[in-house]
Amino acid sequence: MSEGFDLIVLTLAATLRVATPLILCAMGGLFSERSGIIDVGLEGKMLMAAFAAGTVAAVTDSAWLAVAAAILASTAMALLHGFACITWRGNQVVSGVAINIIAAGLTVVLGTAFFARGGQTPALEPEARLMPITLPGAESLVGVPVLGPIYRSLISGQNVLVYVALLSVPLTWWIVGKTRFGLRLRAVGEMPLAVDTAGISVSWLRYRAVLLCGLLAGIAGAYLAIAQNAGFSRDMTAGQGFIALAAIIFGKWRPLPAFGACLMFGLLDAVAIRLQGVRMPGLGEVPVQLIQALPYLLTILLLAGFIGRAGAPRAIGVPYEKEH
Amino acid sequence: MGNRHHAAAHPSRRALRALFRVRPESGAAPAIELRGIDKSFGTVRANRGVSLSVAKGSITGIVGENGAGKSTLMSILYGLYEADAGEILVDGQAVRMRGPADAIARGIGMVHQHFMLVAPFTVLENLVLGAEGGAVLRRGLAAARAELARLASEYGLSVDPDAVVGDLSVGEQQRVEILKVLFRGARVLILDEPSAVLTPQETDQLFRILATLKERGVTVLLITHKLREIMAATDTVFVMRQGEVVAERRTADTNPEELAELMVGRKVRLTLEKDAVATGDVLLKAEKLDLTDSRGVKLLDGVDLELRAGEIVGIAGVSGNGQTELLQILSGIRRPTGGRLQVRGRVIDTSHPTDPAEMRTLGLCHVPEDRQRQGMVAPFRAAETSILGYHKLKPFTRRGLLDHVATTAHCGLLMERFDVRPPIPALRSSSFSGGNQQKLVLAREMDRTPRILLVGQPTRGVDIGAIEFIHRQLVAARDAGCAVLVVSVELDEILSLSDRIVVMFGGRIVGELPAAKADERTLGLMMANAHA
């Protein structure tokens, strides 16, 4: 019983760790998409950020400089996306895909040029990484039934960026729902003309949304390279940017449901990892790949019509042009 | 001495006044004054040397045909476009409008023809957008709620602040637009074709609102192409033609005939003359037509309709009440989900479907509502548009190949007969004006000498001169024994064209009456279904 309970707590803790980049990306993507800019390039932004973090951490041994570099790299990609989609009114999906391709190629080329390790950055010492934080009292309270282990293994002992991710959710909810910027952001994704005629710049609003997206995707990338892992390795994002995008759609472009979707995808992943190689009576080896494919399958099913496009900002994907 | 007479008698004095824009009757600076506004889009000169002045607390109308430059002028005043040359004066002070924010700061507000509302937002959220009163919404929203209540009582514009705008009726949405403008403290209100989407009753209500605004000292600029509204609502009217102001009149001193003539530049008959109706056989008969869409929404509900040879039947209704779907079914584009349709003996129902090609062979031709998307292919040459749907017939196709020479010759002939300008078959369809596009589509269909002719919004976006021509063509078809069905949201058009009028509401036919017994009021009530 107690062992089973511990297992659950540990799986949930793993869920949080796996879901962190998803949550950060989803909140970032949400800003962009609510403003009407489709963000297929989350993956590429995160990958560039992870590479920048891995490189700067390896060279300077400073974790926080690495985070700053990650944010810088990611926002640079976001600006590129904005320049293509907002200023030049290009196709947002094409621009996003281009960013993914640039990131996949550039990180490997630069990585090989810098470190000659086949695209990897050198393994980082703990000082150059962000390590789990033990909250006060975690060990002394472990004797408290139920809450003790939850506090020690789930609430305490997480990486600082996990807390940042968890904080980003209510913050996004508050900004989008309760502030002037949020109101204008939602309006520009629905009806940019209304925003323009109200005397507000559509472009500047969308640029800010895209930059916020870059900021959060940058933190997600840093998490991958210097918190969850001890360095950058090629294609280390492994589709998580797309999963985050799926979570946004799953959550109908609202922060709290999108957060829920991230946790669900994270849980599926954590369970899949835990079940790796486990033989279940009567079933044989658990088909882990199937569990890992579930998020994608669910997304396809949902996109195929279970929720439809309902909830999507009405002007999403449409470049804003005045008549004439 | 009338203003008009006065101006005609002293041309030099008129020129002087045009130069200095001195208003002898009032000492105060005009609310708005435009001097020599020029604006070009590429080679098109949308405004040339436009000068006009609007007195404080008046309702001033600007009339003109589509493309006369009214909307461009207002967009310049509102800062959406910047003029190439000219000056804008607000309360006697020259100002530069770099964007709507400048105009709003100067107390100028605009209600656009297509509402600038965010559908999923509440009334209150729409109201504060751009004037939130702080980085955090809560306080601003509370203040806006109080201000909304005040405006509602002062101007008689009540609306639920927490209603979602997308759920409101068109009339209510327009009220929200006006409130939005007043909320920003506007003292000058520009309304661009405000009645385009309203029922006659809603329009009357709008005019009452405008009168109240005027009483409270608000200056109103009303842009429209509907002369009746100019006559009913304004104090002064400016007439625009081809980018220029061609006349200024006091409304009390003018009449619709004079205004129409000024707009078009020649005499126009506003009333349509036609012979008494002589109906023949029933050519088309719809019985209990039903249409339910994939979400289970009933779009058409038991529609019965008969079309006889030699009559024009008009379908009136506020747009979106099933007229579009009815036209789609009658023309074979869409299949009904229930009921029966007979077209010259051919029975069509759910188990015996049809398509537009078969309908054409039965002598049924269709001029669709949305001519840009359904009536033509915009990048095609006019010659190609002129044979769409008939392109497989001789002489346009021979041995499976298109014959461009024959097509071009055919198009040239149609253009001559239907007065399409410019008469150049090689020109892209999209480069013609709305009226000329419509004449081309109408020419294509009427050239087949149809027995049944379905026409959706025959004169939408068409200028007065072309309206007259199109109407005469439809009457000629009817006199030749064709059964004509006209769907229009313009009541004037329905009233002047039809022999019999059918009113649709909520996918049902809610009334039918001979044109002789119909007037705007009764039709308006039926369209709002206040009749039942």
Keywords:
A: 324 residues, mainly alpha, ABC transporter involved in vitamin B12 uptake, BtuC, two-stranded antiparallel sheet, 69% helix, 2% strand, B: 532 residues, alpha/beta, Rossmann fold, 3 domains, six-stranded mixed sheet, 19 helices, disordered N terminus
Describe this structure in words.
The complex is a heterodimer of chains A (324) and B (532). Chain A is 69% helix and 2% strand. With 324 residues, chain A is an all-alpha fold. Chain A has a single domain, classed as ABC transporter involved in vitamin B12 uptake, BtuC (Orthogonal Bundle), CATH 1.10.3470. In chain A, strands 1-2 form a two-stranded antiparallel ribbon. In chain A, strands 3-4 form a two-stranded antiparallel sheet. Chain B is globular.
What do we call the CATH topology of the largest domain in chain B?
Answer: Rossmann fold
Distance between the termini of chain B: 50 Å
| Annotated CATH topology of chain A | ABC transporter involved in vitamin B12 uptake, BtuC
Most extensive interface: A-B, 22 and 33 residues
Main structural class of chain A: mainly alpha
Q: Round the mean pLDDT of chain B to the nearest integer and report it.
A: 87
Query: Uncertain segments of chain A of ≥5 residues (pLDDT<50)?
Result: none
